[in-house]
Design brief:
This protein folds into two domains: 125 residues, 3-Layer(aba) Sandwich (Aminopeptidase); 128 residues, Gcn5-related N-acetyltransferase (GNAT) (Aminopeptidase, 3-Layer(aba) Sandwich), CATH 3.40.630. The longest helix has 15 residues. It is elongated, with a radius of gyration of 20 Å. 31% of the residues lie in helices and 33% in strands. Helix 6 crosses helix 7 and helix 8 packs across helix 9. The chain is α+β, with helices and mostly antiparallel strands. It comes from Vibrio halioticoli NBRC 102217.
């Protein structure tokens, strides 16, 4: 078969993939989810595809055995379908066990190949991009304050209590956002009641701003989430960036807040389980 001429190599660094990553992002129909593709993907194991020592593609698999990215250059002679099936059927000795994929509906090639090999699929995440109408900070009705290093521990404690994330991870994550001036707080009477994130991309998708927010458990149901998102949208638009965000399918409250803020959802992140023959 065509893929027998292909060499799959396990990578220790991602430096060699930069040009192919650029091609991969360029062929998507909408921006890929920021947390998945710039948070989870770099932590996943990457594999390069070579034809006669020429790099023609790559894939990456997370620690749970799910494909997160798959790309084969149009210039490759290898069949993208045959190679994908080889991986999905766990016939690659280099890659090993792969049970499924997390794939976005705006990534048509990866999506089609995943569904071709699917035993089942379900929606994991709703992806939002762009606004229905102009939104400004006055419409939000609140003012967000840029976080500083002096308040890092406070932000870490807030998020740990609100969403249960590990403090060690939050310290690193929020510390980086503060350095990049991408973390904001909404305060009431000296109390931090919500956080907002407006994350820029260093490469690929640089025309977008990825938004995120957390509201204190004691202040939910008061419309604060929608106001925070509106303020973040205004911040992004002021920097001539297109706002985007995502939320889990099960998080109905966040979906309502995001939609009230005016963001539009046209794409989904699917969890696909592969069929084994």
């Amino acid at each position: 078969m065509a893929y027998t001429m292909l060499n799959i190599v396990k990578l220790d660094t991602l430096d060699t993939l930069h040009s192919l990553k650029a091609e991969y992002f360029a062929q998507t129909h909408a921006p890929l989810d920021g947390m998945w593709h710039f948070g989870f993907v770099p932590m996943s194991q990457h594999y390069a595809f070579y034809e006669s020592d020429v790099l023609v593609g790559f894939c990456c698999v997370n620690s749970d055995g799910y494909l997160l990215q798959y790309f084969l250059s149009p210039q490759a002679s290898t069949s993208a379908s045959d190679l994908f099936t080889l991986i999905a059927q766990q016939d690659s000795k280099v890659i090993g066990e792969v049970g499924g994929a997390f794939v976005c509906t705006c990534d048509p090639s990866f999506l089609s190949l995943s569904l071709d090999n699917a035993a089942s699929s379900s929606v994991n995440t709703l992806l939002y991009c762009g606004v229905k109408q102009s939104v400004n900070s006055e419409g939000a009705g609140i003012e967000l304050t840029l976080a500083t290093g002096d308040h890092l521990s406070l932000y870490v404690d807030f998020a740990a209590q609100a969403i249960g994330a590990p403090k060690e991870w939050l310290t690193s994550y929020y510390g980086n956002l503060i350095t990049r001036q991408e973390l904001f707080g909404y305060w009431q009477d000296g109390e931090l009641v919500a956080t907002g994130e407006r994350r820029k991309f260093d490469e690929f998708q640089t025309q977008y701003a990825d938004l995120g927010m957390i509201v204190s458990t004691h202040h939910r149901g008061q419309g604060i989430a929608t106001k925070v998102i509106k303020a973040l949208i205004a911040n992004a638009v002021a920097e001539q960036l297109i706002p985007m965000c995502s939320t889990e399918k099960t998080n109905i409250g966040a979906q309502r807040a995001i939609e009230k803020a005016g963001l539009v959802s046209k794409h989904r992140l699917l969890q696909v389980q592969f069929e084994t023959l």
